[in-house]
From TrEMBL:
Localisation: Cell membrane
UniProt superkingdom: Bacteria
PROSITE patterns named in the record: ABC_TM1
Membrane-spanning parts: 20-42, 85-111, 123-146, 152-173, 194-219, 273-290
Span of domain ABC transmembrane type-1: 85-290
Keyword Transmembrane helix: yes
InterPro entries on file: MetI-like, MetI-like_sf
Keywords from the UniProt entry: Cell membrane, Membrane, Transmembrane, Transmembrane helix, Transport
Organism classification: Bacteria, Bacillati, Bacillota, Bacilli, Bacillales
Topology of this chain in the membrane: Multi-pass membrane protein
Keyword Transport (UniProt): yes
Name of the protein this chain belongs to: Carbohydrate ABC transporter permease
Amino acid sequence: MDEANENETRSVRTDASSIFVKLVGYVFIGFFSICCLLPFLLVLGTSFTSESAIKRFGFNFWPREFSTFAYKIVFENPNLILGSYLVTIGITAVGTALGLFLVAMTGYALQRPDFAYRNRISFFIYFTTLFSGGLVPFYLLITQYLSLKDNYLAVLLPGLLSPFLIIMMKNFVRSIPHAITESAKIDGAGDFTIFVRLILPMTTPALATIGLFIALGYWNEWYNSMLFLSADMKYRPLQLFLYNVITSADFIRNSAASSNVELRDVPLESMKMATAIVATGPVILFYPFVQRYFIKGITVGAVKG
């Protein structure tokens, strides 16, 4: 009887401590989530604030003087920004699909114990994370040898493969028993059939994680676009288009100031916030759909050696 009471007391204490730990965890996670949300709310509120209110009151979460003038300037030419959106979406979709397939195949091949040159190739891939050829050879390769000046392929090709993502995929695929590949070979399946029908379905978390990394890289890409896509092209990627909008507004304001001309109608600060909302909005809407796979893929890829 005493033993039963003691066990019941221990169970009650365990439940109480478990509830306390969960409560502390929820409070901490909730507080951390709010801290992560506040900067975005600040950007959103400032984007709808007039420039004069920003000068007088600074940045606020809630607009002191509501204004959509910054968005009107950003969307002044809707055809251009729509074309930039379509270009970015197309490059992101095609680049993510191709890059994900290439990274998955490379990671799968490099972890196969029956692949004789896996260690040498892995070394060369890892070596590129430490040393780079530099900007000038890269520019000459794209423009002179590949002749991709003013071609969207100049933005698409450099982002297809990443050493970090290949290593992550390799570590994830290593968790899959090699016996599955051997049993499929006994049944007469080829390497490509094994990869497509067996390996890919088992690596969904890694594919979602790596796909998100590749997609974000293409969506936020502007540097290669600036190098290889000239102003003669009508539609350029979204990030470069928004960068040019901000640069032009900043140039107009500075020119007016140097000429002692008042130009208060250029909402430079609110335009910066508006462009941030325009650029990150689709990513924020897309991220919740792959969040669970993203967390699982990061965890498994980090633990497996």
